[in-house]
UniProtKB/TrEMBL annotation:
This is Glycosyl hydrolases family 2, sugar binding domain. Keywords: Hydrolase. It comes from the Bacteria. Pfam families: Glyco_hydro_106 (PF17132). PANTHER family: DNA-BINDING PROTEIN (PUTATIVE SECRETED PROTEIN)-RELATED, SECRETED PROTEIN. It comes from Eisenbergiella tayi. The keyword Hydrolase applies. GO terms for molecular function: hydrolase activity. InterPro entries: Galactose-bd-like_sf, Ulvan_degrading_GH.
Length: 986
């Protein structure tokens, strides 16, 4: 029986404190609430001034800090080395920390140069003390029978010899095993026949040759046998010419932490305090069979049996061992095959946790920084378990294919282990990959596209965005510089991953950086709210998995009910056996549900646990389920019941499952489509209950004083092009909790009471309207005075009318007249950005267009087919009635790409960038009014023009396939008049 940790010491250190004043922090979010930026540096080819320019630019743009990632110069030929750890790098790294302090900016350093993890100084890969990465490979012989015995050498895999040679060593024989075919065509082996031979007794080494081992083997039974030779060896994998580290070895982890303590932390001195985290990217190391020194001995001690005879069930020589494809072994056993695989995967997970994650996190805590880690997706490890053992678990948009369930895989671990921050690498795209469409890539990604990625993640409990990314702008004053820039750099500046490939280069080299603060303020306010109190989640979906079918394998939904739960308002996390084993994961009754229990009442308070066609369970988990259900927790089995223990040599679980089914709160349904009905039958309602099916996602954060609800119109779309076509969503929604409902406007920072709502005993019902790709935050506030709000004495219960309060406290209805006022006769002042001899600058040329009618994209204007830049649109109009006459006006914008700002009568007003409707009534007056709309584009069109004229070769792995985008403002723009009908004067 696997014994999971019941009460581990959780890493909780986070240097992300706020000023404690909620309304002030919401209006003006501090740096700690703000998004962060991945900052790519070209090794140590930097300048002190260049570092300061970049940091100042990011800080002024509203980012809280940067994740420093030194990169090889992929844009030049060479061996892709990095000067990481050299005196030159240390000097620049120290300057980064000093400059960050100057701008109230914080730094996360990647823990080794680039990734996967690797360190300089490993001189003997065959020495376990040095911690070089290990793997195992196999070669085999078959055709062995009683009548055709075998006497000869143990086969040696050529791949093992080749890989070991690249690390300057030889493979070592780890085991020799055999098994009998039960079906040769399918390479099925008899479990009962598998055995390992004793090295040194049954298998003898030829003197002087470590690769020559001999055996004489004559089977005792009938049938054809296969003889396997298993060889362990350093993988030889390198990152920037440094051997990669063994992620399962305590010696490798010790070597890594000692490097920091001896080489880097003392050098930084007091400046080290300006760091908040060490960062490690996703595990992209490639090994045929993950291994470490002493693997078989440690496995036998942990699992009470010898794994060696069953290694054929694990080994796929064609698998690279990460993210491209998961292993599909050539052989399998006729019994216990899957259980043995899970034993191996669970053992790897525990080695990784015990020997790598826990020591690294303790090291970080010792030095008062966080361990932020994309812990294990893409490898044969249990992601939900590994996420619990770092300070800040991180996910990403690209690897998970933006599938919502991918974010939920770590959310349950986050909630049950009490973590404050759940981070995301957002939002890499590549031409043809990343859900931005076929024509997406660097310098093309729009702000709307970025919000689509991030808001999807926010709606699954992520609460920190790290942009991907910001390229160092290219300033270089070292040897070989070209006019103060990196050699070979041309307009629009140095970029790390090519000019057309991975997006995006977020920086002032792009016109849409003009509006960056609109977006960083917006994201900061959302992140601040999504860190309040405790996340409350409706349902837990059980999942034990060591392989996730994601990006490179075609992302799929993990709990696939066609969105039924989501579209009825339910939220859910995935939780693993390790999470269920925690001592704080208890089932207990609550004040509002005295007959029924919830899971983790002081945390997410799951109202039910769902097992979706789960045909196996660890014995310990089955015991826990029986315990929870006996306490009154509803447990729903969908489809087939678990019948097999998850691991080899475990006790049978079938009797426990039968006991479970006798309990009153345990139900079984045939399909996931039946789950909402059975939940309703059990009176298990979502925290945010939609009155009609809606393509809206929600998150609830609970504090003793306030319940915060985040809503996002995801449109049931899994790509950004689909999202651009999604419809608006309208529904009444009943929110669990008590208090005054307030809208927290995350675009402007204002907080307003909701004027139309209905109160129940323990809930409040409001009407919800969200435009495509739009989100909002509603709070139920029990003490509005704490937010500086006066409690309105009146509200309306008519949810169908558009009711609001004006600044004088009057309750009024917006009664639209049904007509519209077209806005015409536009003047456009177009600032065109073009290539410049100075790589980091653009030449800007002004074009003026008077009396534009109709409005069209810039590329449809004569001579502007390849224009990027900014455009200022101006028009004037006459109003006979205005706000003082109880007349209001909603501005309906046309199509816009990319970002925009509004001025009404020369006064800038906050605008929701995700909505085409803006109420500008308070800023209008009788007579002539002026409207100014400033649009900023991406740099794509100008870049395409430049590269076509200069025959620029972007990158060795991708050619340009993109065409110019439509920029600017086009279509109809008009005002929608309404009468301000005062319902009551307060």
């Amino acid at each position: 029986m696997k014994n999971y940790r019941t009460n581990p010491e959780w890493p909780l250190l986070v240097h992300y404190e706020t000023n404690g004043n909620l309304p002030e922090e919401f209006r003006n979010p501090t740096g700690n609430s703000r998004p962060r930026m991945r900052w790519w540096l070209p090794s140590a080819m930097l300048s002190m001034d260049g570092i300061e320019k970049d940091i100042r630019s990011m800080a002024e743009a509203g980012f809280s800090g940067a994740e420093v990632v030194p990169m090889p110069r992929f844009d030049t030929s060479g061996d892709f080395t990095i000067e990481w750890g050299t005196p030159k790098w240390k000097a620049f790294a120290g300057h980064i920390l000093q400059t960050a302090a100057k701008y109230n900016f914080t730094i996360d350093f990647s823990m080794t140069p680039f990734w996967p993890l690797a360190l300089p100084g490993i001189t003997d890969a065959s020495d376990p003390e040095q911690g070089a990465q290990m793997e195992a490979d196999c070669a085999y012989l078959d055709g062995i029978t009683k009548s055709r015995p075998y006497s000869g050498l143990i086969p040696v895999p050529s791949q093992a010899v080749e890989d070991a040679a690249s690390a300057g060593t030889l493979p070592r024989l780890a085991a020799v095993t055999c098994a009998r075919y039960t079906d040769k065509d399918t390479k099925t082996l008899a479990y009962s026949s598998a055995r390992a031979f004793r090295l040194g007794e049954e298998v003898l080494q030829e003197e002087g040759d470590p690769l020559s081992w001999k055996i004489t083997f004559c089977p005792e039974d009938e049938g054809e046998y296969v003889l396997f030779g298993w060889w362990e060896h350093p993988s030889g994998n390198k990152t920037c010419q440094n051997l990669q580290l063994d992620h399962y070895s305590p010696k490798a982890t010790e070597r890594l932490t000692c490097y920091w303590e001896k080489e880097l932390i003392p050098y930084f001195g007091d400046d080290f305090s300006h760091m908040v985290s060490l960062f490690i990217d996703s595990l992209e190391f490639q090994t045929h069979l993950d291994w470490t020194w002493g693997f078989l001995e440690s496995f036998r001690e942990e699992n009470q049996y010898d794994l060696a005879p069953y290694l054929p069930a694990l080994y796929d020589p064609d698998s690279p061992g990460c993210f491209v494809s998961f292993p599909v072994p050539e052989f399998r056993f006729d019994e216990h095959n899957d259980q043995i695989i899970r034993d191996y995967q669970e053992f790897l997970t525990r080695l990784y946790v015990d020997n790598h994650l826990i020591p690294l996190t303790r090291f970080c805590e010792k030095h008062h920084i966080n361990m932020r880690y994309q812990t294990s997706y893409g490898k044969d490890l249990e992601l939900a378990q590994t996420a619990m053992y770092v300070t800040i678990p991180e996910t990403e948009t690209l690897y998970g294919g933006d599938i919502l369930d991918f974010y939920r895989l770590q959310a349950g671990s986050m909630h049950l282990s009490g973590k404050q921050i759940y981070s995301i690498e957002a939002s890499a795209e590549m031409n043809g990959r990343g859900n931005g469409g076929v024509n997406s890539g660097n310098y093309q990604q729009t702000w709307g596209n970025q919000l689509w990625h991030i808001q999807r993640a926010f709606s699954c409990c992520v609460n920190q965005a790290v942009f991907h990314g910001y390229s160092y702008e290219g300033y270089y004053d070292g040897e070989g510089n070209e006019n103060g820039f990196l050699p070979g750099t041309h307009w629009p500046g140095y970029t790390t991953m090519g000019y057309s490939e991975f997006s995006n280069n977020w920086s002032s080299c792009q016109p849409n950086w003009l509006h960056v603060n609109h977006y960083t303020d917006f994201l900061a306010r959302n992140q601040f709210i999504l860190r309040q109190g405790t996340g409350r989640i409706d349902l837990a979906v059980y999942r034990q998995s060591y392989e996730e079918i994601i990006d490179f394998n075609h992302a799929v939904k993990l709990y696939d009910d066609d969105g039924l739960l989501e579209q009825n308002g339910y939220t859910y996390d995935f939780i693993s056996p390790s999470a269920l084993a925690l001592s704080q994961t208890q089932a207990a009754e609550t004040q509002h549900e005295p007959r029924r229990a919830v899971l983790a009442p002081d945390g997410p308070a799951y109202k039910a646990l769902i097992l979706d066609n789960q045909n196996f369970l660890p014995y310990e988990t089955a015991l826990r389920l029986r315990e929870f259900a006996s306490e009154g927790l509803p447990v729903l089995f969908v489809g087939s019941l678990p019948q097999q223990p998850a691991f080899h040599l475990e006790k049978e679980i079938a009797p426990l499952i039968q006991e479970l089914l006798l309990l009153p709160w345990v139900k079984q349904v045939n399909t996931v489509q039946e789950v909402p009905a059975i939940l309703e039958e059990l009176q298990i309602l979502p925290n945010a209950r939609y009155h009609k099916r809606s393509r809206i996602l929600n998150v609830c954060r609970h504090t003793p004083e306030t319940d915060f609800y985040y809503f996002y119109n995801y449109g049931d779309s899994d790509t950004y092009p689909q999202a651009q076509e999604m419809p608006a969503q309208d529904t009444p929604v009943t929110l669990s909790g008590k208090g005054l409902p307030c809208l927290l406007d995350t675009w402007s920072g204002s907080i307003h009471p909701v004027a139309a709502y209905q109160e129940g005993d323990e809930n409040v019902t409001i009407s919800l309207h969200l435009e495509p790709n739009e989100s909002c935050v509603i709070a139920l506030i029990q003490n509005p005075a704490c937010l500086g709000l006066d409690i309105p004495s009146l509200h309306t219960e008519a949810l169908t009318i558009r009711a609001e309060y004006d600044t004088s406290g009057n309750l009024y209805e917006k009664a639209f007249t049904g007509c519209s006022l077209p806005l015409e006769n536009w003047k456009l002042t177009l600032e065109k950005w073009s290539d410049s001899p100075i790589p980091s600058e653009s030449i800007k040329t002004i074009f003026t267009y008077d009396h534009l009618d109709p409005l069209v994209p810039w590329k449809d204007l004569p001579g502007q087919e390849n224009t990027s830049g900014t455009g200022i649109y101006e028009t004037s109009f006459i109003l006979e009635k205005a706000w003082e006459d109880n007349a209001g006006y909603v501005l309906k914008l046309g199509e816009i790409c990319d970002s925009f700002s509004l001025m009404v009568n020369h006064r800038e007003i906050p605008a929701n960038q995700s909505s085409s409707y803006v109420d500008i009534s308070p800023f209008l007056h009788r007579g002539e009014n002026t409207l100014t709309i400033t649009i900023a584009s991406t740099l794509l069109n100008a870049l395409l023009d430049y590269t076509s004229r200069n025959a620029i070769t972007y990158h060795k792995w991708q050619n340009e396939i993109r065409v110019p985008d439509a920029y600017g403002l086009w279509g109809e723009v008009y005002l929608l008049p309404y009468e301000k009908k005062v319902l009551s004067s307060l």
